[in-house]
Amino acid sequence: MWEPRKKSNPIWFIKKSRNIKANAMAKNRKSARRKLLYLLFRQNWNIGVVKSPIYEVAGLSGELKQKLALDSIVWMKEKRGEFRADPFPAVKQTKDGVRIFHEAYEWKTARGRIDYIDFSTDHGFGEPVESMVSAGHLSYPFVFENSGVVGYIPEHSSNRDVSFYPVDSEGIPKEKIEMIPNCGLIDSTIFRKDGLLWLFATTSGATHNSELHIYYSKSLKGPWIEHEANPVKVDAGSARPAGSVFVHQNCLFRPSQDCSAHYGSGIIINKIEILNKENFREQAVSEIRLGSDHRYDFGLHTLSSAGDFTVLDGARLESKMHPALDFAQHLIRKPYD
Question: Where is the Glucosamine inositolphosphorylceramide transferase 1 N-terminal domain (predicted)?
Fold first, then answer.
């Protein structure tokens, strides 16, 4: 039976239009504040060490133990004009300390290199030592042991390859072992499962923070096979790797970056529920963030286990012009956050 068309409510239409306009204006204001923030300030990353196991830092043992762990972070001494990030511990540690490979970035050259630094509970951080320099940018030196040989896989996507660099007792690379040629993978992270090596990474380009890709192989030298479901995950809030995959209570957990608000705003801990050649599924189970009572309250983006220790990095904003202006970032940040 035909019914006459109902007339729309003009008042509802006006309210909806106003809401759309208000939301658009709020979005534009937030975008403008974000541009102003990065025009005047820059992210200053630093490395910290916690004498707590990674599962406590990750929040898998409850909020209280996580808070106690995060409140006990020992940070490196800062040096203006550079930052240190992406910490990965050497495979073998002592009961009193750990060697940490990491990115050392200088603002004047806009290029990162790989350094290492020793930390001990008695003496704190030592002096950084240069490990690897390249004409291009280097970061994220993922430490890995292959057939008894320890080395790292740096992120150097501009070189268009993924390679493993064995290091000697002094932490210096001895050779280059190419793993995957002709690729632009970012923050390659490897672990073993079911007799295979699994490599997680994002790709360079517009999706470098949001598309997770997986490769697998029987050996480090390959061939590396691309996962059937790539990209296995599309989410700026939990795709990009943020450190070593770890085991807790017989389950695999993968740290990932939360880049939904801004680059490296926090770390999401994902429980890997399914991983095989055809399928992949993970579920976010906890997160790590530092509150405003911490110096490095603008972000976290790397977390790795070092036995009884956990290494991580944190970011704060500093003025591009003068240290005395660092405080002003909070005037812009509060509405932006």
Answer: 81-286
Domain that holds residue 162: 25-336
DSSP 260: S
Tell which phi-psi region holds residue 251, choosing left (phi > 0), alpha (psi between -120 and 50) or beta: beta
Element (H, E) at 263: none
Tell me how far apart the terminal alpha carbons of the chain are, to the nearest angstrom: 54
**Contact between residue 268 and residue 240 where contact means Cβ atoms under 8 Å apart:** no
Residue 224 DSSP class: -
CB count, 10 Å around CB of 215? 23
**Tokens describing residue 162:** 């993924």
Give me 74's structure tokens.
């020992």
Q: How many residues does the chain have?
A: 337
280: in domain: yes
Backbone angles phi, psi at 250, to 5 degrees: 65, 20
Q: What is the mean pLDDT of residues 82-90?
A: 97
- The mean of the pLDDT values for the chain is 91
Domain count of the chain?
1
CA–CA separation, 98 and 55 (whole Å): 18
- Cα separation, 332 vs 335, in Å, equals 7
Is the dihedral angle over the CA atoms 22, 28, 31, 35 positive or is it negative? negative
Burial class of 117 by CB neighbour count within 10 A (0 to 12, 13 to 18, 19+): buried
173-213: pLDDT as tens digits: 999 999 999 999 999 999 999 999 999 999 988 889 999 99
Examine the pLDDT at 294 and tell me if it is beyond 80: yes
Q: Rounded to two decimals, what is the model's pTM?
A: 0.89
217: exposed, middle or buried (Cβ count in 10 Å: 0-12, 13-18, 19+): middle
CATH code: domain of residue 164: 2.115.10
Range 258-287 burial, b when 16+ CB lie within 10 A, else e: bbeebebbbbbbbbbeebeeeebebeeebb
**How many angstroms separate the CA atoms of 213 and 188, rounded?**
10
